[in-house]
Amino acid sequence: MEKIDTELTRMLNIKYPIIMAPMFLVSNAAMTIEAVKAGITGTIPALNYRTDKEFRKALTEIKESVGGPFGINLIVNKSNYRLEEQLKTCVEYEVDFIITSLGSPRKVIEACRKKGIKVFCDVTEETYAKKVEDLGADALIAVNSGAGGHAGPMPADELIPLLKATCNIPVISAGGVATGQELLNVLALDACGVSMGSPFIASEEAGVSQEYKQAIVDYGAKDIIMTDRLSGTPCTVINTPYVQEIGTKQNWLESILNKNKGLKKYAKMLTFYKGMKSLEKAAFSATYKTLWCAGPSIEHVHAIRPVSEIVKTLIEEYRALSEEVS
């Protein structure tokens, strides 16, 4: 199919303006390779790899299989004690782009500029967006209220025009896209592309459990709720019977600790650690303790399919609708 021409497809030399979003525990080399083959691009959180050796092995596999373009997501706040090591490896392997989250991207932008590596920054509002633009970011990832995981407060039709009016760099919308109609709607708002994740959890190449994949098929938008029990920050999960059992709010002890100035930092670290361990167990094994991250775009997922088919269907829907409009 013919290329969709946008700032994103030109920047990354891809056929379609879609980034397979970096998903904690889910994204892997196999998914990224298939994304590139399908004419889009993929990203992986560096934190999905426990060691630099494992990280380098995955980068080598992708480079040898498809070359690129592909990206890596880096957490850039103080909680990521491995940031310097991860950044050094990304620069050494000359990944095509980096998506930064949760902090200042200054160091990342400075290190990547020398190698021509693009840096896209997660943003949820205009003040921070302007700051990262001034630091030299190449594009904004506009995380809206339809995103999975740590969603933003504003819907795409508010956030994208706001960022376009405030900044002069490309805007990529993150959240709420799983169909050709939704892709068409976002591009009509003057976004140059989309970052989509949840529909790809139900891909054959995803390394998560069959139960997690099937949950993406079986549940819908009405089943997505916010919880602050995973990371201390509101995060979207599927409202499974187990989530209903444990509740979505921190217990009285966690609440007290998070309000104590001296203990708040450590309480949040403990909450994050426990939450990530629970997510990891649920993602890779059959367990009644089902804590599965996802966004409302799972509404449109009806089967577990290869990455190539997910992309093909989306683009075919987009093409048909574009022809109707024109």
Automatic annotation (TrEMBL):
Keywords: Flavoprotein, FMN, Monooxygenase, Oxidoreductase. PANTHER family: BLR1330 PROTEIN, NITRONATE MONOOXYGENASE-RELATED. Signal peptide: none annotated. SUPFAM superfamilies: Inosine monophosphate dehydrogenase (IMPDH). GO terms for molecular function: nitronate monooxygenase activity. This is Nitronate monooxygenase. Belongs to the nitronate monooxygenase family. NMO class I subfamily. InterPro entries: Aldolase_TIM, NMO. It comes from Fulvivirga marina.
